[in-house]
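ugh ok fine here u go
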Amino acid sequence: MEGLSPLSPGSSAHNTAEPNAEEQAQREAAAEMRRNMMATILDSAARERLSRIALVGPERSRQIEEILLRMAQTGQLRGKVSESQLIELLEQMEDAQAKTSTKKTTIVYQRRRDFDDEDDF
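structure:
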């Protein structure tokens, strides 16, 4: 019985390590395929702009990539996407998010008032 207990935790740890390695390999393969697709969809200037966007906002870059891949899969793209076309897509995304977002940013200044402020004069 004592001989079995050290083997059980070791074997379970080994089994959990394998799926993580497989999942990591699948994620890397998917990321590589995504990069290859983006390289075929975008021209060099648009790819550079998208990489700069990814530095600032990775989530926004991911959304743009999703849209571009969907457009390519449905046949909406004719040739490579130029930087100006990417800018237009960004503006359309911004407008769509502004329409769906009803939250308006406002700044309210609250000044402190002392009890005797008005009675000084």
